[in-house]
Amino acid sequence: MKDIPGRYRRLLLLRSFLVQGSWNYEALIGTGFAFVLLPVLRHLYRDDPDAYHAAVQRHCEVFNSHPYFATLAAGAVARLEAEGAAPEVITRLKVAIRSSLGSLGDQLFWLAWRPMSALLAILLLLLGLPWWLAVCAFLLCYNALHLWMRVWGLRLGLENGMGLGRVVRKAPLNRWAQWMASAGMILAGVCTALVVRQSGPEPTAMAVAALAAAAGAWLGLRVRKAAYTVLLLVWTVGVFLSFIS
Amino acid sequence: MIPEPALFLLLVVLGGWVGIDSTSAGQLMISRPVVAATVGGWMFGDPATGALVGLILEALNLTVLPVGAARYPESGPGALATGAVLASGPAPPSALLAGVLFALSWASVAGVSIRKLREFNVRLMSLPAAGPELPLQLQRRHFAAIGLDYLRGALLVAVALPLLALLLEITYARWALDPRFSHLVLWSAAAAGIAATVRLFGARRFPLFLAGVCGGILSLLLR
Prior knowledge:
The complex is a heterodimer of chains A (245) and B (223). Chain A has 245 residues and is an all-alpha fold. Chain A is built from 10 helices and no strands. By secondary structure, chain B is an all-alpha fold. Chain B is built from 9 helices and no strands. At the A-B interface, α2, α3, α5, α6 and α8 of A face α2, α3, α5, α6 and α7 of B.
């Protein structure tokens, strides 16, 4: 197996931050994935330009992954390329992991960690703490896991190559997602109570806000559209009334 | 209400960064409304107003999921512009309501711009066949795509600033509703947005939500 020096591993990590730069509806993050691998491929195939160009073209094919989990795939693919694995084997690995890396990342980050971190920031603001504390807490909290995931993923991929699936299945990522969702739910409850109180001191105002919260819980993902409609209606009425009063 | 040229330029430059942070580069979450709006407000010397706008917008964006090829609104550039413009002048509840409304509308416009960019990227990333040109073209075009995304974000902020200023002029001149009503509507919308995460985290965890509500009420009683 050819060696992948530290410099190229660092480049894999740094370039992973740009993996979605050329996201498109045909290759998804495929071209970005090839971009991430470019320095490593150039190093591994430095004595065989034709093999290098063929490898680059191979990796421009359609591929998808959660952006923070792209390093898992990049590390594993880099290792297989270093081992001289056949192109079909590498393609099989990419096909096998792409949907699971996507859904794992979505569950962990978009459905749990990000909303939980955002609710933490909202809570700190509602408690009257300084704005910079809330913003920094959100960014530090969120990016601590984000950055760790990229580094961990790259190391795991480089160490395990073809055995990546087995190792990822053993990792407690689902358990973490469940814990985060539970913590997020508690934070959501606390924030809801504080926001309802914020709506005004009168019991009527708080009752209206509490009803709105109940409607939001029922609406779920449609809440944004509903809130927009209400805000637009109120603004239109607010401006229109001035013409007739 | 439209910032002076230096601040305008700074906001536009920051808008580009906010634009690429949402997908193309980093995803460090500086494009989230609670960050972008606060930073916009801070640039105008009133981060508290920016943070207030950011809080409400964040509450309404908690359930937006950028999964795969899904079409979703992009809230960063609008939040930055709204936090900045509202911090630059008086921000009664009517102005906050107009600002939040604008930011939500602009997020949909930004979402369309992302789709258009992704469609353009299909053509941009039509690469030559395997050969000496391929790696260089891949790298150049990948960076070009990021550059275009940056310009997209910057343009969104540049156009948002005067549009929002115009909307606020109309609102200041023509508002006929009691400010307490505007205040109530805004915070009710925020409450709805936050409670909607019950669906996100899983309805079977609803007892935890109720526990949180009790905790929140307790904290209010203890103040």
